Amino acid sequence: MPERSDRPDAPELPATPALPDFPAFPDAARQAVGDPVLRANLRRATHTIRDKRARAVAELADWDRLRAAGKAIKDHTLRHLDRYLVQLEEAVTAAGGTVHWAADADEANRIVTGLVLATGHREVVKVKSMATQEIGLNEALEAAGIAAYETDLAELIVQLGHDRPSHILVPAIHRNRAEIREIFAAEMGRRGRPAPEGLGDDPRELAEAARLHLREKFLRAKVAVSGANFMVAETGTMVVFESEGNGRMCLTLPETLISVVGIEKVVPTFRDLEVFLQTLPRSSTAERMNPYTTMWTGLGPSRGADDDGPSAFHLVLLDNGRTDTLADEVGRQALRCIRCSACLNVCPVYERAGGHAYGSVYPGPIGAVLSPQLRGTGSAIDASLPYASTLCGACYEVCPVAIDIPEVLVHLRERVAQGGPVTREGIRVRIRPARGHTAERAAMRAARLLLDRPGALRAGERLLARARRLRPRRLPGPGRAWTDSRELPQLPAQSFRDWWARERGDRA
């Protein structure tokens, strides 16, 4: 990693809070699966979004070629990431910006907090950013006496509701209109302009209440914090896709702009954006074109007093486990992700469990492969995430950059089950297999012994067929967990071997 740029001294902050003691995914999901309101909210929202996306994608005859092109661009960039990051830093610096390098969340939070304090202001407005959620920036700013205001509508709902995001594109997907109205009525007045008297749950009323609440913050703020969907190495250009216009307000009105961006978001050339300008909107919001696409390149060559845009721009390039992920030839494809959330909307597990069960700002299938690599698999939740999937492959089919999520899931399952060495924050550590993996390995060994002996297998199949009427309703021991939520399948009247012998007249 290149040397870090100079930055203002930051106060000593408490370390980024460790991951809460989330239970393993099955335990975390159990409450969500039993909540009919939550399941109805998730089912309605995910089905609506994915149906619209399917229609939008079907309009393009060359969608498969665009998908392959996006994959190729991302793979090429990741193979040469060191070179493109240096090129990006040079281009941003030449355009008047300042680049900072952050190895982990703590360093990124110190950099951003120091930059904000150096301005003399104690408020920031924020563009929706997964990277700042990943590092816990809002909490770090609050610890330093700085108020951070989310301006994306869904993020605003989550923040006012003292909640956590549960979806990449629609962080408040688990909330319905009635719940949002209650949150606005109870919480808006505590952080600024209160909600109008008699606020209803009509979407237009809710949107207007949010607009009025945020307007005063946009006009008052002197410092903004953003992420970026893409960074162009050859020009130093930052690119933000959004649908509401709040990003445009944050990126143009404040005097100081600080962007925290993962190092994997770089693309080599401006021309490469042409692919993603087509695939990202259709895969995320099912739109042909993104409503607001904001691009900026440093401060520009000749900034005057009356020019739009910030007078100071800082880019914080975030690693936080990405370099370790890059070293895994199978797992690195997760870094191709462009955060469209299409995989969440087709996933049967996410639809029933919701985003909170994943214990990460990256929920759903992509979170199941990205979070354990960025954070390591030393916790119960991270060790269980690779198993939070049916391996149905729907996520791979809709991914606009062709991430083979099932392949990575199986790869990570092997790593967890073996209890072997894994990389976490640059340190080689040894993990303990999650509960049940010891029994699983024993069962696999027993199956191997049986499958290696065709005669014993044949005898066992015949015995089970004759005893099928004695089929229990529940399995004993560890198998009880399976039959607690599923019916034990009926045993067939005959084995496949017997059927084959009858149909073909020979032995299998």
UniProtKB/TrEMBL annotation:
<dbReference type="Pfam" id="PF13183">
    <property type="entry name" value="Fer4_8"/>
</dbReference>
<keyword id="KW-0249">Electron transport</keyword>
<dbReference type="InterPro" id="IPR037171">
    <property type="entry name" value="NagB/RpiA_transferase-like"/>
</dbReference>
<keyword id="KW-0004">4Fe-4S</keyword>
<dbReference type="InterPro" id="IPR004452">
    <property type="entry name" value="LutB/LldF"/>
</dbReference>
<dbReference type="GO" id="GO:0051539">
    <property type="term" value="F:4 iron, 4 sulfur cluster binding"/>
</dbReference>
<dbReference type="InterPro" id="IPR017896">
    <property type="entry name" value="4Fe4S_Fe-S-bd"/>
</dbReference>
<dbReference type="InterPro" id="IPR009051">
    <property type="entry name" value="Helical_ferredxn"/>
</dbReference>
<feature type="domain" description="4Fe-4S ferredoxin-type">
    <location>
        <begin position="334"/>
        <end position="403"/>
    </location>
</feature>
<keyword id="KW-0408">Iron</keyword>
<dbReference type="GO" id="GO:0006089">
    <property type="term" value="P:lactate metabolic process"/>
</dbReference>
<dbReference type="InterPro" id="IPR024185">
    <property type="entry name" value="FTHF_cligase-like_sf"/>
</dbReference>
<dbReference type="Pfam" id="PF11870">
    <property type="entry name" value="LutB_C"/>
</dbReference>
<feature type="domain" description="Lactate utilization protein B C-terminal">
    <location>
        <begin position="412"/>
        <end position="503"/>
    </location>
</feature>
<feature type="compositionally biased region" description="Basic and acidic residues">
    <location>
        <begin position="1"/>
        <end position="10"/>
    </location>
</feature>
<feature type="region of interest" description="Disordered">
    <location>
        <begin position="1"/>
        <end position="26"/>
    </location>
</feature>
<keyword id="KW-0479">Metal-binding</keyword>
<keyword id="KW-0813">Transport</keyword>
<dbReference type="Pfam" id="PF02589">
    <property type="entry name" value="LUD_dom"/>
</dbReference>
<keyword id="KW-0677">Repeat</keyword>
<dbReference type="InterPro" id="IPR024569">
    <property type="entry name" value="LutB_C"/>
</dbReference>
<feature type="domain" description="LUD">
    <location>
        <begin position="87"/>
        <end position="318"/>
    </location>
</feature>
<protein>
    <submittedName>
        <fullName>Lactate utilization protein</fullName>
    </submittedName>
</protein>
<feature type="compositionally biased region" description="Low complexity">
    <location>
        <begin position="13"/>
        <end position="26"/>
    </location>
</feature>
<dbReference type="InterPro" id="IPR003741">
    <property type="entry name" value="LUD_dom"/>
</dbReference>
<keyword id="KW-0411">Iron-sulfur</keyword>
